[in-house]
Amino acid sequence: MFELLGIPPQALFGQLLLGLINGSFYAILSLGLAIIFGLLNIINFTHGAQYMMGAFVAWMLLNYAGIGYWWALLIAPLIVGATGIVIDRLFLARLRDLDHLYGLLLTFGLALIIQGLFRNQYGVSGLPYSIPPELAGGRNLGFMFLPNYRGWVVAASLAVCLATWFVIEKTRLGAYLRAATENPTLVQAFGINVPRLITLTYGFGVGLAALAGVLAAPIYSVNPNMGADLIIVVFAVVVIGGMGSILGSIVTGFGLGLIEGLTKVFYPEAAATVIFVVMVLVLLIKPAGLFGRAA
Amino acid sequence: MKTGRMLLATALVALFAGGAEAQVSVKLGVLNDRSGVYADLSGEGSVIAARMAAEDFKAEEKGIKVEIVSADHQNKPDIGSNIARQWYDQDGVDVILDVPTSSVALAVNQITREKNKIFINSGAAASDLTGKQCSPNTIHWTYDTWALANGTGSAMVKAGGDSWFFLTADYAFGHALERDTIAVVEKSGGKVLGTVRHPFPGSDFSSFLLQAQSSGAKVIGLANAGGDTINSIKQAAEFGITQAGQNLAGLLVFITDVHALGLQTAQGLVLTESFYWDLNDDTRAFAKRFAERNGGKMPTMVHAGVYAGTLHYLKAVEALKDKDPAKVMAKMKEMPTDDPLFGKGQVRADGRKVHDMYLFEVKKPEESKGPWDYYKLIATIPAAEAFRPLEEGECPLVKG
């Protein structure tokens, strides 16, 4: 069958693995979006810009402060997460009781402003950022040459996704969070500072985007538009997985990476559209998304 | 009585003004990508270049009033077309300059012809602009896909790269570049093992690179540009493709791309350009002045083309004391071109501007003396050989 289509099985394995790698980025980004939507009811269109900021902060840390990749992995999400907290305090907190649309418009506008500022300062061609020496090189898996760095990306993103899922679904903190979205007044009555909890959650979601940005810096060009292209795809992922579903966004992120990977082999011209085709199909059959609960 | 005196005075003024210099005012519109993947290689830099040309020409002293406007076509043919129509119909623009992104350039080419204005293209690559779709109102200044294919393609085949696999951006430009390069490769005795067309713009090319790798081709031809080329080259290094012996041919690489890649990744890349800031004293002097205005960034060949094209246009207007498009186009084709950036050349009947092209190799990090010192000159392709011969372009304007 595979040979019939002109693709030997080992090449197919290679492509699937690559799909999984791209899926890791989709997963981390859509996870952040899902958390923010699930707990804040905000459709965070700044997510792509925050992913880009993560990559840029990593670059700045290296070039202005001499801080390398491993520390950037920790520091960049903290810095960008902190800017997220500021955004939440200044703007989003005022929109809590309004329709989704207001949050969407506000975050979309913010994304355009942030991208514009970076474009003005750094141009669009992008900045070089090297793979850390510890992860340079790669290994031959027999069916393909896997750069160590890509392997690390898959492992790191899986670990982050699972840890996040665990915290939200299985711990006391996560229970507070989920309760605070169901009934904030009641939770507040138990002596929990709900507004702070929500602000920190937004900061965390934004931090996840920045983490994806740092992970992406060595393999994609670090440029102001890097998030704008990705964010639309990631939104499709979230819609397919079911808005606000944590597990759904993780599984769909990886799954769609695989589907996209296969499309790149069999019909490359459609690689950019296949995710949206899936989205249309899912919306027709199961409007709440694959893992979503019908409202 | 009073009216008579007024008339006399007006006549006198007119006579006086006519004796000094007839004033011609021209409006130039720089239409390009100001925010997307091609914004660094064209963008505001092209506006700066057009302005510098008007200043260096001392247009004002020669009785030509130059006004320069600019707009962002966002690499979308519909947006570019709307701006071009509005400029020509309502805003009184006489000439559209630059226009990278071949799909947009081909649209503006049509509109300019309909409206009988002038289009001096610097940024776009598709050789169709002076081939099947050539127009009496268009000049294609800086480079084209045929010239790139001819430079880089034949150099790679000569160096032993006789089997090719193409990674092609899936729109007019990529298709043209792929087509022209395949022709060169096959003519030089090489063969093409396969092609894959990737969405434009893309970010992950690993899948396509892997397909290129398993094809076993000696050369992977990158028929894309800007951010797509940067990511392709970066990821080819990551996947060990270049280390394993396959060569990359960046069919359209700008100096801004090399700057973004860094020499560590870009070293050894062979590429064709029509301009490099460090070619001679004239280009260095221009580049220095340009960089001062452009935040320290050196000019690309697209910027140089906008400068030289504007200069040539102004010379034609000066000679005619008139801006009638048909007359100006005839003058621009009749007068040999001569400017500090491209040297002497000419505009052919099909609208193709011909000049020397250069084959460069990107320096190793240890060979570079500082920022923007990136290229080694390998060969100069003389003007007569650098572009597609007039009779082979199938341009209806060329009778033969």
Descriptive report:
The complex is a heterodimer of chains A (295) and B (400). Chain A is an all-alpha fold and 295 residues long. Chain A has helices at residues 9-40, 47-65, 69-90, 100-122, 148-170, 172-182, 184-189, 194-216, 226-241, 246-266, 274-285; strands spanning 138-140, 145-147. Chain A has one domain: ABC transporter involved in vitamin B12 uptake, BtuC. In chain A, strand 1 and strand 2 (145-147) form a beta hairpin. In chain A, helix 1 crosses helix 9, helix 1 runs antiparallel to helix 10 (246-266) and helix 2 (47-65) packs parallel to helix 4. Chain A starts with 8 loop residues before the first helix and ends in a 10-residue tail after the last helix. The mean pLDDT of chain A is 90. The longest helix of chain B is centred in the C-terminal third of the chain and has 20 residues, at 301-320. Chain B is α/β, with parallel strands linked by helices. Chain B is built from 14 helices and 15 strands. Chain B has two domains: 24-143 and 279-351, Response regulator (Rossmann fold); 146-273 and 356-382, Rossmann fold. Chain B has helices spanning 2-20, 43-56, 77-89, 102-114, 145-158, 172-187, 206-215, 226-238, 255-261, 263-266, 281-293, 301-320, 325-334, 383-386, and strands at residues 24-32, 64-72, 95-98, 118-121, 138-140, 163-169, 191-198, 219-223, 247-250, 270-273, 337-339, 343-347, 353-354, 357-362, 375-381. The termini of chain B are far apart. The chains are: A mainly alpha (295), B alpha/beta (400). Chain A binds chain B through residues 8, 11, 14-15, 18-19, 21-22, 116, 119, 123-128, 130-131, 137-138, 144-145, 147, 149-150, 219-221, 223, 225-226, 229-230, 261, 264-265, 268-269, 271-273, and chain B through 35-41, 43, 170, 196-199, 201-204, 206-208, 210-211, 213-214, 226-227, 230-231, 234-235, 238-240, 244, 256-257, 259-262, 264-265, 297.
